Amino acid sequence: MPGGTDFITWPAARVSAPRLARLKCIKAAGRGRRLGSGAGLADPTFITQLLPFVNWPPPKQRSDRISRVVFSIHRNRDALAKEQGSPMSKWLLAISAACAVHFSAIANSAEAAWTEAQKQVLQVDRQWAGAELRRDATALRRILDDGFIAVYGSGKVVDKETFIKDVIGDPSDKMLSQDLGDITVRVQGNTAVVVETDTIRGTDGGQPYVTALRLTTTYIKRNSHWVALAEHFARATDLKADEAAIRKADSDWVEAARSKHVDAWLAFYADDAVVLPPNDKVANGRESARKSVGDLLSLPGLSITWQPTNVAVARSGDIAYLTGAYSIAFNGANGEPLTDQGKLLEVWKKQRDGKWLCAADIWNSDLPTSPPPK
């Protein structure tokens, strides 16, 4: 290595102007000192004076990179030790020791600061949930930034005051509890993002409901306090679980039909269900379907079953359809055995309490139509 050459190159993007000036002074003190000379940069004290002047990434990235550096230093320490007596090895061992100590201290302090910020953000997040339960507009105005916006699952965008009005404005919709879970927090300087699931239990018009929402909230630190700047929420969905729930409900419905109790059958319809039985008028509403269901279940010698061939749940997680096939056997007017088989289509809707009910039901035969009597 030619004498008098600056053998350390510092990327300009990583060094601020004031630190760069001080760094040049430190480098000047070591100018002309060759590697392995046993002085200058080989001195651990000199190394630790130099390291703080380098700009590293933000705390979380910094701690991750530092961990990799320290690991690399320790991994190669044994190989360096084999070169005992070499001036180069003495210098490298000295700088590795200094780096390990200094980087470990930076990592620990950065991680502690990052964790404390997480705690502060989560505390505000829980205060927000409590304010909604209490319908506390004053607390909400303190927690939400003046520029706050919310994006609902439908895509509707509202400002701070409209959001507060939506939360506390409808006395018939009472939130009883909010359970926050599956929480992830990311902090970057004075900005934080919280992703979580909020399971809300309450009553609407006296009827109980359970709603699971997936929330993404952005917080900013303003005047040493964390406030919410934006939130997006949508219904939390587990499509496989919803499909399994519908298949289970449909199977239970078959058992209810085999019991031949009309009310047991009707319990699987929503209040406003539309039922379209074959060779009969449409029934609008659960009670309107009572006659057609009663006529079916009163057939002598009735044996009935059906099974789904496909269940498809919408990505919104609140509506689905089921297609399938049925078979039925009963005794005719003269006691002769009769059979029928056909297809069916059911539309299912998730209710406010999380239960799935059939909102539309139609079935018809695969058999050809009998010719009209002559």
Q: What features would you describe in this structure?
A:
- The chain folds into three domains: 12-115, no CATH class; 117-235, Nuclear Transport Factor 2, Chain: A, CATH 3.10.450; 239-365, Nuclear Transport Factor 2, Chain: A (Roll), CATH 3.10.450.50.
- 38% of the residues lie in helices and 34% in strands.
- The chain is built from nine helices and twelve strands.
- The protein has helices at 17-29, 44-50, 59-81, 87-134, 137-143, 160-168, 239-259, 262-266, 290-297, and strands at residues 144-151, 157-159, 173-188, 191-204, 207-222, 225-235, 269-276, 283-284, 303-313, 319-331, 337-350, 356-365.
- It has a six-stranded mixed sheet. The protein has a six-stranded mixed sheet with strand order 8-7-12-11-10-9, covered by helices on one side.
At a glance:
With 374 residues, this protein is α+β, with helices and mostly antiparallel strands. It is built from nine helices and twelve strands.
| Tally of DSSP helical segments | 9
Secondary-structure element sequence?
HHHHHEEHEEEEHHEEHEEEE
Number of strands: 12
CATH fold type of the largest domain: Nuclear Transport Factor 2, Chain: A
Low-confidence regions: 1-63
Number of separate domains: 3
Throw out a few tags for this protein:
Nuclear Transport Factor 2, Chain: A, six-stranded mixed beta sheet, elongated, single chain, 374 residues, 3 domains, disordered N terminus, alpha+beta
